[in-house]
């Protein structure tokens, strides 16, 4: 039987609770849950608060170097460069880093809540230019908090139609309906399934945007057992009873297309 391919397009490294433990949780859970390939970003929180107890404030270039070291040492991982546009302006260093290590880099990552900055803020414009220069998609955390609403990302996607954006979580802590409508209205906007109830996929089918959603999990945010969560078990076991074409698109083909993951990276 042909081995099933699964790409997790939304994973992390960080001090959760230590870097070595986060690495072990990610590597061993990927092996045990048969994940073929993962895209990781290094936690680039800009501000520490009580709700983000695990955060350790790591500068964007330092985090990118740690992430690069990991993907060089571990097969079947690629990286996203987490940007910190509120406090840092070292655009040239980030540009040079991407230029030098482009083969390992599949996109940029921005977290509005962790940066206390909406994606529509002009301080992100230099990073949009970097994304244009290297043809990189941008993964953006979306949620119902004041910084992360899907409407801000939709506005930016409409203003930057030549760039590809991915709405992480399809607006976390919502019923995902606003995010799905945004995917329908915006040709260059996609989404991932991190903490998205599989039932939302049926709504996506009705709206005709199912083919714009890819598998992602936030692993290892809850440690080794993150992928044991019933939400992810439903995806991994195809409890939605999707046909082969739809399931393959969701679980790996769209991620390969959007993030430029080559077939040989999966071998």
Q: How does this structure look, described?
A:
This protein has 267 residues and is an alpha/beta fold. It has 11 helices and 8 strands. It has an 8-stranded parallel β-sheet with strand order 1-2-3-4-5-6-7-8. Helix 3 runs parallel beside helix 5 (125-134).
Poorly predicted sequence stretches spanning 5 or more consecutive residues: none
How large is the radius of gyration? 17 Å
Q: Helix and strand string, N-terminal first?
A: EHEHEHEHHEHEHEHEHHH
Shape: globular
Query: What profile does the largest beta sheet have?
Result: 8 strands, parallel
Beta strand %: 15-25%
Write the layout of secondary structure elements.
Layout: E1 7-13, H1 19-32, E2 37-42, H2 60-73, E3 77-82, H3 91-100, E4 105-110, H4 112-115, H5 125-134, E5 138-143, H6 150-159, E6 165-172, H7 177-185, E7 189-192, H8 200-207, E8 213-214, H9 230-236, H10 244-259, H11 263-266
Parallel strand pairs: 1-2, 2-3, 3-4, 4-5, 5-6, 6-7, 7-8
Identify the notable features of this structure and list them briefly.
alpha/beta
TL;DR?
The protein is α/β, with parallel strands linked by helices and 267 residues long.
């Amino acid at each position: 039987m042909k081995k099933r391919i699964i790409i997790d397009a939304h994973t992390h490294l960080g001090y959760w609770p230590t870097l070595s433990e986060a690495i072990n949780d990610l590597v061993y859970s990927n092996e045990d849950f048969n994940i073929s390939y993962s895209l990781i970003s290094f936690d680039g929180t800009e501000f520490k608060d009580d709700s983000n107890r695990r955060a350790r404030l790591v500068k964007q270039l330092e985090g990118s170097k740690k992430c690069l070291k990991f993907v060089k040492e571990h097969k079947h991982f690629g990286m996203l460069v987490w940007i910190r546009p509120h406090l840092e302006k070292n655009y040239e260093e980030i540009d040079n880093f991407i230029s030098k290590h482009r083969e390992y880099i599949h996109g940029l990552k921005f977290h509005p809540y962790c940066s206390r900055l909406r994606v529509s803020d002009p301080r992100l414009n230099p990073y949009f230019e970097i994304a244009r220069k290297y043809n990189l998609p941008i993964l953006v955390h979306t949620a119902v908090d004041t910084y992360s609403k899907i409407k801000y990302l939709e506005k930016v996607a409409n203003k930057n139609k030549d760039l590809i954006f991915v709405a992480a979580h399809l607006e976390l802590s919502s019923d995902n309906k606003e995010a799905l409508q945004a995917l329908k209205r915006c040709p260059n906007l996609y989404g991932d399934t991190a903490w998205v109830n599989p039932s939302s996929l049926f709504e996506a089918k009705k709206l005709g945007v199912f083919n714009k959603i890819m598998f992602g999990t936030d692993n290892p945010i809850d440690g080794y057992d993150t992928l044991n969560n019933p939400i992810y078990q439903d995806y991994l076991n195809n409890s939605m009873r999707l046909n082969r074409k739809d399931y393959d698109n969701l679980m790996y083909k769209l991620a390969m297309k959007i993030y430029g993951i080559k077939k040989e990276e999966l071998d």
